[in-house]
Amino acid sequence: MTTTASLMAREGGRLGRTATRESAVSRTIAMAVMIVATLYFLTPLWWLFVAATKSRADFTTTAPLWFADFDLFGNIAALFQYRDGVFLRWLANSALYAGVGAALATLFAAMAGYAIAKYTFRGRETLFNVVLGGVLVPATALALPLFLIFSQAGATNTIWAVLLPSLVSPFGVYLSRIYASASVPDEIIEAARIDGAGEVRTFFTVATRLMAPALVTIFLFQFVAIWNNFFLPLIMLRDEALFPVTMGLYVWNTQVSQIPDIRALVVVGSLLSIIPLIVTFLGLQRFWQSGLANGGLK
Amino acid sequence: MVRDTVVTPSRAVRHRKALAAFLLPFGVLFVLFYVVPILYAVYQSLLTVEREGTFGPAVQVFGGLTQYIAVFQNEPFWASIVRVLMFGAVQVPIMLGLALILALLLDSPLVRGAKFFRLAFFAPYAVPSVIAAIMWGFLYSPNLSPFTAVTGSVDFLSADAVLWSIANVVTWVYVGYNMLIIYSALLSIPQEIYEAARLDGANQLRIAWSIKIPLVAPALVLTGIFSIIGTFQLLAEPQVFASFSSAVTSTFTPNLTIYSTASVPNMSLAAAMSVVLAVATFLLSFTVLKLTQRRATL
């Protein structure tokens, strides 16, 4: 960064003379920064992909950033067979926690945000401020308190201990409220009422369609938050069969020094665990980018 | 900012049932999994364990602020707070600075292929913290890294360096996310403002400094506050790095201290630590918000 800054300063002295020169030099510097940044962000992912294609022997003996014998599918097969396919189980658990959790969290947040935006009732602002306070309470700060509650109910080490707390998205309520008041016109709700549609039906058939970009945004960010959550499963779950994939890979990684063979599984498993997220983000980018731009951050 | 519906009270009363249907699912879950756990943690933190004689059964009794006095006398806890403060003071400005520079470049006419770069920089956000830490752990390790020339001469996992190696992992994951938030704010600036500035002869650097940065200040404050919260909650990355480096102790960050205290198990002390950490996080984010607001009005 220092070299770029000094370069910019040096070029700055010459800039005044010609305008065309300025843009050519600035363009080059800008592209150079972009390329360096791309290398920084993508090299680790490239390394992971290449490493996942290698046999155990090639992993330590061949050039780390280029392919040796391409054996990605052999490695994946080995991973899926290891200990009766426990990794597949973890992937399924993560999909369940994140998929069901994010879908329901989005629905509940959308209903609450829509209600706060479109109905007047006593305590509306108070309610909204309490929810906003919830945005500032980080998930990890709640993990231990949640453990205390669930252990009172004898419900730690169950699916519910991870799934139920994931259904709450205060940020989702915030985004839904802003988005609903900006993009769902009162006239449309009024028209639906005149047509005889009930309030709940109007929400599901009319409002959700208009709020779609916000809903996709909420779903995605909640999905990522649950998929990535570590403290809650760490503190709640003892039974390996209930682990999400991050928790399983973490435990494997702590065992690498005792079972060196497991390292190859950690590498392939890491690659497989991020592919669903990258694919989801790329596939839905049109929605979440406009959701972020229009709703959340004004 | 928020254009909510203003309805006469009689109409709100008419839709009371619908309103309840919209608000209850989120409301009940929010109370059960946000409010109750926090209150219960406060309650638990006021308890203390007493024994009759040396071998008598342990009983939980009301201990007032005993646990809080213990928290304030707990040196590892404060050492971990100081460690994350140091971490945040260095990492947050670097991360947000990078995010701002990249967002400005993406938004400038200097860069071609902005769409590709935007996705490339954002991709690491799809990598769970646990996986990112495992991956970088491999990249740092002297015998596996593709960068042996670097890792051979610098020990990234030594007691002095490991905190900053973790800072790099966090930066790698979150620069793109913060960049996207700032970029979304940049997109909402009307183009006419730039045309006026260009007519006045301002170059891109000047436009960025005098127009764009002041206008995205709210987004910077928002990302700053979320970053501070995140820093105080550090857990997954150091927990993973404990497998790579003996310098990462069980009291490396506040949340690790809470986790290891809860595993003792000393639930009351851990609950008191959780409460202190939550209050500290809140106070710090609130202070940042107020300070930046004051500066913005000057």
TrEMBL record, chain B:
Matching InterPro entries: MetI-like, MetI-like_sf, UgpAE/MalFG_permease
UniProt topology in membrane: Multi-pass membrane protein
UniProt keyword Translocase, yes or no: no
Any GO BP annotation: transmembrane transport
One Gene Ontology cellular component: plasma membrane
Record flagged with keyword Transport: yes
Residue ranges of every copy of the ABC transmembrane type-1 domain listed in the record: 81-288
Highest taxon of the lineage: Bacteria
The family this protein is said to belong to: Belongs to the binding-protein-dependent transport system permease family.
Name by which UniProt lists this protein: Sugar ABC transporter permease
Species this chain originates from: Pseudolysinimonas yzui
